[in-house]
Structure formats: structure tokens, C-alpha cells
Please model this.
Amino acid sequence: MRSTVDLHTHSSASDGLLTPGELARAALEAGVATLAVCDHDTAAGAAELLKDAPAGLRFIPGVEVSSRARAGKCHILGLGCRLDHPAFRKLMEEAGALRRNKLEARIDFIKRLGLCVPEAELNRLRALPGAGKPQMADMLVKYGCVPDFHTAIREILDRCPAVEDRVEAAEVIGAVRAAGGVAVWAHPWGEKGKRTLTEGEYRAMLAELLEDGLGAMECWYSQYGVEKCERLERDAREYGLLVSGGSDCHSRPDTAPLGTLNAEGRPVEPARLTVLERLA
Model:
């Protein structure tokens, strides 16, 4: 059984496979009645669904911003923001520019490796609001540069020299709050394929984000076991944070299905996700 709320999903506006409309319809088919689309560094998918969300779906606009703090790298979700607010528009412009710079660095890297991809295909990626590694990996597979998706990620794209692609967490949180939204620390202990934070690193990041005005924590997350999710929930309540939860679904075979809010697939009652009260 799946949860009826999913507050962290991705559409084709960034690195999901489904268009915003397709994602919304898939959510309803999966029994998800409350959905947030949180594409990477762009609110284009959320804006599209705000105009035309299907009947029967409670839609919450969102975004996932690649962020940095003194304590390290993190991802901040902005849920329920007014997308036309000047502070939010400024944040999206900055985050989008950084993402485009990273895309160009990756394009330059694959060209220097001698991998042949039609320029028209590269321009198609450039035209997307929030293109990332998954789309580039799909492209490399399509044109026979690598045998499979995971090889493209590990052997090619992860070797690309790093460029600055993150906004200061304090700035992200401030803009989300100014736009009437809730700033959520996404997957606090890390995500699939990334290093898990130590207890000390987790505590240091939490302290810094609390100081910056963090509003909620993604306690229920598809890649964490129930015991870990419940521990995060206790921490959130201890520090006065709202509780959020999401699948991080990209509609890809290697990502969690819609409505999956823990690794065991146990349904989570909406009442436990106290961030919904703030988003009402």
C-alpha cells in the first residue's frame, strides 16, 4: 500500500520522465491525492500544474534547490511558495543560471572526451528548464556512447570537473519564507548514490539550517527505513520543525514509486505530515 500524500516528486521539467500532467494523472492512479512537484532548480513544472491540475488532486507547488551551507551540501525544498513573488523569482533565476552553467560544463566535458552527440540534441537539453545528469545519461545511451544509463553516470558524468552549482542555504530559506512557503530540508541523511552523513555532520547541518530559519524536515523518505524515519520525526518535533515526506519519484525504474514514503513501503497517515497544516 502507498501513502496518499507525496510531497517530493520530479517531472520532465527537470530530470523526471513524465510531463507534469502525466505525473499528476499517474499520482491519482496510484492513490496519491495530495502531490507536490519539486523539480530541480526550476518551478516550471509546478507552474504548469497550477494552471491545469486534474480534478480530485490537491496540488502543492514546489521546487528542490541545490544548496550549500558551512556544514556542507544540502537540498532545500520550497513548498507552497507564491511563484510570482519577487524573492522567489530571483531565487529561480539564480538557481537556474547555476544549473545551466553546470550543464554547459558537462557538454564541454563530453565533447573533450570525443563523444559524438548531435548539436540539435544538445540544444534540446539546453531548452529544458532544469536538465541534469539523468537526461544527459539517456542521451549518451541513445547515441551509443555508453552501453547503459549507470555507466554513463559513473564513468562519464561523475568524472566531469566540479563547478559551482549551489545557492547559499540561508538565501534559499529566506526566499522561500518571503514567498509564503515552507523551507524543508530534503533527505537529511543523504540520498541514493550519495554518502550518508555521519551523526556529527547531520547535527551540524541541522543546527545551521535551524539558525537560517528552516521550517520543516523530510522525515519520511522512500530510501529510509521506518526506524530512521521515526527518529527524524522525533528530532523534527524536538526542534519545532514541521514534518514532511516524499518519494523523490522520478518515474524511472531505479527510483521509488509515487506514494512511497519509506523503504518498507508502509503507508504514512497524512496526520503525521504536519507540514500539510501549514500548507492548508
Summary: Strands lie at 5-9, 34-37, 58-69, 72-79, 167-168, 182-185, 216-221, 242-246. The radius of gyration is 18 Å.
